[in-house]
Design a protein that fits this description.
Layout: E1 2-4, H1 10-18, E2 25-29, E3 44-48, H2 54-63, E4 67-72, H3 78-88, E5 92-100, H4 121-132, H5 148-154, H6 160-164, E6 166-172, E7 175-180, H7 229-240, H8 244-249, H9 251-384, H10 387-395, H11 398-411, H12 417-423, H13 425-430, H14 434-445
Parallel strand pairs: 1-2, 1-4, 2-3, 4-5
Antiparallel strand pairs: 5-7, 6-7
Length: 450
């Protein structure tokens, strides 16, 4: 915190005890005797000098750039109080407070004031009430315009940013407390209308989400005065104090005074307009400079990004080439493996086909062998028959026994000697028993029996 005007320093000790968590308590006094003051609390710092001089402000800022509380308890003169506000309010943190003490002095002439003094400190703080409500003026004026007379009177400058951060003003006996908040928290937000029925004023439903927009008040004769109202009243009082005779004798002088007043008003308006233009130009120049800096930073970043992208593209190309080369190699290996597997599969299929053929042939031979064995068993059974019949046939003469056996084979369809001879003329020509020939030779030679 900062206290302007410490006298014997007792208040600084009180603040350090009351604000036990404070990091630094700065006191400032113009009286050189204050340099002899000492404090046991190391958080208390004393700056000796005029608080409204640049070098003193720089010394204070060296201890603390941003402040939470500022108390003006200095000379109590209106000029100093207003100047201290213009100089230090911007150093307040958001949520911080500025306190002007002993404002009862603003009603005394020796402190630069009076009950209706338009330039007293209390009149200045009253005017700040209008600053808080600037969005409702209905005029194309800045906040600074409302303080133009004070700027001219005390040769000060109130920045628009500083004025937009005033959140609230509270008056108490001899005190004014001003709170600072971010500019966006010091204006009315859009209206919020809930519900869907409006039996009395239906148009209110259409105002949901809209901001308050005042009508143009530029034609209102009370909307703007080039000089404070009190000063205008004093000028009129001075004019009305002239007697009628004096007025008649001094018509030219009165007319000159009126013309001078009109000219003065016009000059003030032109000065205000010039100030606004200069402020606008300055603001635009700052924005242009900022835009140039942003553009330069952007160009630098863009150049860096382009280089980075080029490197990434080059690396990506190298990786892509490596990947393509690796893919080609892998493709060759896969193709070689596929050819090898195809050849191996073809050879395996051929071997399987050969095995299948061998198995089929073996199965056919086995089936033929089984058929032959079955035929032989049937033939043997037909020839031998049961033991009694076989013995009876064996008792017959050889040619007759053989004829009976052939007849029995032919009747059972097992073997026809005549058909065998017809199917195999070489056997008939050679002579001999056909059944014997077939059993001993014909089976192996695969001769036909019919």
């Amino acid at each position: 915190m900062l206290e302007i005007g410490v006298q014997n320093g007792g208040s600084l000790e009180i603040w350090s005890r009351y604000f036990s968590n404070a990091t630094i308590v700065v006191g400032c006094d113009i009286n050189p005797k204050c340099s002899a003051l000492s404090f046991s609390d190391g958080r208390i710092v004393l700056v000796v000098g005029d608080a409204n001089l640049d070098e003193t402000e720089q010394t204070i800022a060296a201890y603390c750039q941003e402040l939470d509380i500022i108390i003006d308890d200095g000379s109590h003169e209106s000029a100093d109080i207003i100047a201290s506000f213009a100089r230090y309010f911007h150093r307040l943190s958001d949520g911080g407070i500025f306190i002007a003490e002993d404002l009862h002095c603003s009603y005394w002439e020796r402190f630069g004031g009076g009950l209706y003094d338009p330039y007293s400190s209390i009149s200045f703080f009253k005017r700040l009430l209008d600053i808080i409500n600037s969005e409702h003026w209905g005029l194309s004026l800045s906040r600074r315009d409302a303080l133009a007379a004070f700027e001219k009177k005390y040769k000060l400058r109130f920045e628009e940013e500083l004025l937009s951060s005033i959140h609230s003003i509270e008056f108490a006996n001899s005190l004014c407390i001003i709170r600072k908040r971010p500019a966006n928290e010091n204006v009315l937000g859009p209206r919020r209308v809930v519900g869907i029925q409006a039996a009395v004023e239906e148009d209110v439903l259409n105002s949901d989400g809209k901001r308050s927009e005042p009508k143009d008040e530029s034609g209102n004769r009370w909307a703007f005065l080039s000089v404070p109202l009190e000063e205008e009243i004093e000028r009129c009082r001075s004019l009305s104090a002239l007697s009628q005779s004096e007025y008649e004798n001094n018509v030219d002088q009165v007319q000159m005074m009126n013309e001078e007043s009109v000219l003065k008003d016009h000059v003030i308006k032109l000065e205000l307009e010039l100030e606004r233009k200069i402020s606008t130009v300055t603001k635009l120049e700052r924005e242009i400079e900022l835009a140039k800096n942003v553009r330069n930073e952007f160009d630098t970043l863009l150049s860096g990004y382009k280089k980075h992208i080029d490197l990434l593209l080059e690396e990506l190309k190298v990786r892509e080439n490596c990947a393509l080369s690796k893919e080609r190699e892998e493709s060759k290996v896969r193709k070689s493996e596929e050819n090898f597997l195809q050849e191996k599969l073809h050879a395996t299929e051929q071997r399987l086909q050969e095995r299948f053929s061998e198995i089929a042939m073996a199965s056919r031979l086995l089936r033929e062998q089984e058929e032959q064995n079955t035929w032989l068993r049937l033939v043997i059974g037909a020839i031998i028959g049961d033991s009694r019949r076989g013995r009876l046939i064996d008792m017959l003469p050889g040619p007759l026994a053989m004829a009976l056996r052939r007849r029995q084979l032919r009747r059972r369809g097992l073997f026809d000697p005549g058909a065998y001879h017809r199917a195999n003329p070489d056997v008939a020509k050679a002579g001999g028993d056909p059944l014997r020939h077939y059993i001993l030779h014909g089976l192996n030679e695969h001769r036909r029996t019919r």
